[in-house]
Amino acid sequence: MKEYKRGVKVVDGKVDQALRKFKKKIQEDGLLDELRARETYEKPTTERKRKKGSAKARLRKRLRDQQLPKKLY
């Protein structure tokens, strides 16, 4: 498992600011994504199917955004 060493120093009692910085660092590391993925086991076939479906959805979205707008008359 990857080891994470993230920390934030609280300066002048600004806990909210330190918490925001900490959350940002955790998000950049991808720690929460990894933890969510490890919560339950996903069979390799279902993982491939899920990834393929999301790739199709991204392609459909990209093609939809590139289309000319419908005539509004």
Descriptive report:
0% of the residues are buried. This protein starts with 14 loop residues before the first helix and ends in a 7-residue tail after the last helix. The protein has three helices and no strands. Helices cover 64% and strands 0% of the residues. With 73 residues, the protein is an all-alpha fold. The mean pLDDT is 88. It has one domain.
Give structural attributes.
73 residues, mainly alpha
| Helical proportion, percent range | 55-70%
Number of helices: 3
Total strand count, please? 0
- The ordered H/E elements are HHH
Estimated share of beta-strand residues:
under 5%
What gyration radius follows from the Cα positions, in whole Å? 20 Å
In short:
This protein is an all-alpha fold.
Draw up the topology in text.
Layout: H1 15-29, H2 31-39, H3 44-66
